DNA sequence: CGAACTGTTGACCGTCGTCAAGATCTGTGG
DNA sequence: CCACAGATCTTGACGACGGTCAACAGTTCG
């Protein structure tokens, strides 16, 4: 874990070298296997985490078992950190989707760092603010758009965040089950399956080993944007 | 605008007197009439606002005209401030529901204040973090619960935030149109009207001059919590 | 090789969005 | 104070979107 690595993280951007040394001094690094539960919703020994590499899924479930995927965490993202400032309980579950390594800080350590280096706190406001805007956008989407379009948006968002160009088209870099897609788009496993199948039939994407490869971005974007629903892609 | 007032605001909590003087020095106060547009979605001359008294509705609309109410702002709440850190455009509209007075700071001034007094930035992280959690809770609600329960939750949330006990029951302190209720709960004007009417018929609440008075909190809570939908309150 | 997980598809039908018509309320100008 | 226009609310009718259940096919892994 070098200062260089650290200064590339959005949370620690713009800090002088001395500050980075402070940050390093109180950091704890850990590694996880795939499919490992990093923390549980409701747990109280909260820390502020930054993912160094790998992928993590943050998901939240209600008392009735209904579940949503809150977001996917990739290299450089912070996670589990907001709870330090609110009720000091993780508001969601975190599971690794791949092998992963992270660095974390105790609540006390992070607060001290912020007090000594205000830029860290300002960075945090920016990061959390962006997520708030995303969340509100998602609220509007759920309240006003239908399932097919929400799935299209969800895929496009993922592609933008974690897409990579390959010979097979734009591929989402980690395995996604139908249930994951459903929990991201706010629909059911069944509807998600139907929608993705119909798109596969239309030749716009393929799934190989749980990894979704989009071949025709433009069609996806059309569904995401068009006012009128498409006719080809509706339910059989 | 006194230091005392200032130190009661969540954003400036825990600051030494000297810091409060700094804050005051760069503040600008304004007053608005009822039904005044404080800022528009997309506008770029952003400032950080704190409402001193009155009520403001923050709402967001998509390119298709679909609208949601993001939140209601009451005395002491900050608003329009997150955009300072992200894309420097207001992400929503702000309208006064009553006469109102606010204080605001320029982006530059707020950043300077945060740099000089890290506690302000830490307070901001806490505030924005709470809103993020609320937004995510709302996402789950929209994705998993049906309209009637969402309306019940919306009213309960409003009562908790801005309810007051009167002889007529618990009253929401500002006028709410059916359309507002719909935009909060993520449903349509028609469904909201039907649901509220059915509750009026059941004697659980009344609307007088756009102000909703809940007489039977417990029934509302039952609808909000129950796993199985009620039978009396479903659509006619 | 069987158990557990994942994905697909059909059938059914309830919730709730949409449209239309009318009632009621509110504010403005004569 | 009345008249009238515009906003707001209520209610009915209709039907489609999509949630739910069931059955089964493929995969994965101990």
What are the SSEs and their pairings?
Two copies of one chain form a homodimer.
Chain A: H1 3-8, H2 17-25, E1 28-32, E2 37-39, E3 47-53, E4 56-61, E5 67-73, E6 78-79, E7 93-96, E8 100-106, H3 107-116, H4 118-144, H5 147-162, E9 163-166, E10 169-172, H6 178-185, H7 189-201, E11 205-208, E12 211-214, H8 217-225
The first copy, chain A, binds a DNA duplex (30 and 30 nucleotides) through helix 7.
Describe the protein's architecture and organization.
Two copies of one chain form a homodimer. Chain A has 236 residues and is an alpha+beta fold. Chain A folds into two domains: 3-141, Jelly Rolls (Sandwich), CATH 2.60.120; 146-225, Orthogonal Bundle (Arc Repressor Mutant, subunit A), CATH 1.10.10.10. Chain A is built from eight helices and twelve strands. Chain A has helices at residues 3-8, 17-25, 107-116, 118-144, 147-162, 178-185, 189-201, 217-225; strands at residues 28-32, 37-39, 47-53, 56-61, 67-73, 78-79, 93-96, 100-106, 163-166, 169-172, 205-208, 211-214. In chain A, strands 1-8-3-6 form a four-stranded antiparallel β-sheet. The first copy, chain A, has a four-stranded antiparallel β-sheet with strand order 2-7-4-5. In chain A, strands 9-10-12-11 form a four-stranded antiparallel β-sheet. In chain A, 44% of the residues are buried. Mean pLDDT of chain A is 91; it is low at 227-236. Chain A binds a DNA duplex (30 and 30 nucleotides) through residues 146-148, 177-179, 187-191, 193-194, 196-197, 207, 210, 234-236.
